[in-house]
Amino acid sequence: MARWRGGSYKTMADRNEAIRAMNEFRRATKEEKRRKDKEKRDKRNADRRKAATPKARATRAAVTGRSTRSTGSRFLFPTTGTGRTDMQTEYDNISNDMPKDWLPANLRANINKMPRPNLRPRGIENPGNHCYLNSILQAFMHMPQFLHWIRGHVVTQNCTPHWEPEDPGTRPDERIYTHGPCICCSMKALVEEYWGPTDPLTRPIRWTSASLEAIKRIAFQNFDTGFSLETEARFVREQQEDAQEALVFLQNVLNDYDTRTDQFDAMFRLCLVPMHTCTDCGKHKEAVVQTDANLLVTFDKQTHNTVASAIHDKFEKYPGPESKCESATCGGANTDKLQVWIIRAAPRILTITLVVFDYQEDTPIKKLHAVEIGEELDLTRYQEVKVVPLKYRLSTVVSHSGNTANAGHYVASVRSQGASPFFNINDHRVLSINPAEFRANPQRPPGVRTMQGFQAYMLTYIMDEAPVERFLGVGARERARLAS
């Protein structure tokens, strides 16, 4: 009998066949769910178009001038007459069915129905070099819509960890997982522990917490998170890692484990359309649409003094690809192109990563910067349809102190709830700060001595809800007044 680290099979082929069968079943289940979700979305879109009244079509014509062109835009796009693109309307419809306020008070009540003493955030203990993961988890804990979404996770058979058959003497930490703990179940448990009752004071989450340990095991151990057997660990348990990589990893596995992909997309995924313009004939060509849950923003310390200016240059001055123009005017002679990014659909939660690390001989060296962080972010001008304002409010700042990505320290400054909602969270330490300290860059947490301060690395913004009806059927000047 073939043995494999505590497990036994008649042959190694039997073991591989069992793993393939399990992966195939999970793949088929998820594909079937995606197919049904697509059918529901198509039916909802068809019903919405069928229910469009003559008054709605007249309003669309009054706003846009024609049914397929945005006000002030030179690009064609599909629209539903609601002041949004079809995709943005779909995002809005999905998001409107999801709660966006903070968690209800009954979650904060203990077994004796006594309310939690205060609304302060909780710290997370750091057993060693886990500050990058703690700061990202703090960002997730301060996304109200995400908190409701993760608490709505339904346990399925895929949520149960699976491991190889083991000898009686095998310790739990020596198990070889073919499918590890469910990240959604673990995150759900962490949310309820984080915002649940803590008497008499708000104590930090212990590093031995079952939910926190499950999340770390997902990041540190080798097992299957999706559809294939992993061969390498993602992060090293006792080593400093990049917080941005941890953010992307958690977003990916959360999306993989939960079947509500349409709600996840409406929360996190930014849909961008690269539009190429020939500098000779002026022909526009739409490139492949890109959707991502994390917006990377490159900046220059000499030319960009605000995050907004760096985003503007990314959207308006991005260098186009070196490819020949396909129009008859140029005849394929011109290869010089300009590229702009257009927002086709914006999520409710926008995560921005400032590219602060430059690689020099395979070593990530950080650019020390003092780029100003705005508490409000207005992206209206970059929308494909500019009728309804697109504004965000700053929710979390994850900052880093040190010279490289693999060293230093991470902290998180958050906008929480209550009369004084701003806090700086340094692992298990939670300190109240004022609004100026919250949006400062570099950040200087109280009680932390550092010459450089903490440079802003990742920003989380929450969309300001704008009543769409107010902006339909009015001119551009009136829309600007309403948006102010």
UniProtKB/TrEMBL annotation:
Provenance organism: Paraphaeosphaeria sporulosa
UniProt-listed Gene3D superfamilies: Cysteine proteinases
Gene Ontology MF term list: cysteine-type deubiquitinase activity
Residue ranges with Polar residues bias: 65-86
Lineage: Eukaryota, Fungi, Dikarya, Ascomycota, Pezizomycotina
Composition bias, Basic and acidic residues: 12-50
GO cellular component, one term: nucleus
All residue ranges annotated as the USP domain in the record: 122-464
Protein name: Cysteine proteinase
Biased composition (Low complexity): 53-62
Pfam families in alphabetical order: UCH
One GO BP: protein deubiquitination
UniProt xrefs under SUPFAM superfamilies: Cysteine proteinases
Residue ranges of the region described as Disordered: 1-86
UniProt-listed InterPro entries: Papain-like_cys_pep_sf (IPR038765), Peptidase_C19 (IPR050164), Peptidase_C19_UCH (IPR001394), USP (IPR028889), USP_CS (IPR018200)
